[in-house]
Amino acid sequence: xxxxxxxxxxxxxxxxxxxxxxxxxxxxxxxxxxxxxxxxxxxxxxxxxxxxxxxxxxxxxxxxxxxxxxxxxxxxxxxxxxxxxxxxxxxxxxxxxxxxxxxxxxxxxxxxxxxxxxxxxxxxxxxxxxxxxxxxxxxxxxxxxxxxxxxxxxxxxxxxxxxxxxxxxxxxxxxxxxxxxxxxx
Length: 185
Description:
This protein is of the alpha/beta class. It has helices spanning 10-23, 71-76, 97-100, 110-116, 126-133, 139-148, 155-165, 168-184; strands spanning 2-5, 27-33, 42-50, 63-68, 81-90, 120-124. The chain has one domain (2-184): Pyruvate-ferredoxin oxidoreductase, PFOR, domain III (Pyruvate-ferredoxin Oxidoreductase, domain 3, 3-Layer(aba) Sandwich). Helix 5 (126-133) crosses helix 6 (139-148). The longest helix has 17 residues, at 168-184.
């Protein structure tokens, strides 16, 4: 599952992933749930792959990997992770509307609490890495670089998927962000 908030590039990341998996010979199903994504709301994308996939939907307790572009979104969707699954998350915080309006406070120590609960979590500041790559909007591709280290698919195949899905004028920037994510993982 890919989770984040509107504008973080979740849909591009899932398109890159789908392209990659199809090129590797898998049956792939992708489903997007936008919610209020254009107003900073939650965005979820399901990517299922295998020899044969019947449905794109991932139920509670079924996700092998939860890739989160925002820390609180990772916590929000954690129930979908299977018992031995992995949470890969950016530690970048984007306050939801309830925090912005003062109705709630952004929770403290999210990554630590998740780790203490026994979940296998990799948390890193993908936003900072994206900025060092040249554009904070590449945070999604930094996280794909992290994901690439958890999968048995060649870096060459990942780069080919980037070449197919990313517009040429942004390709080198995204390749750099991807490599920074791979290195940080």
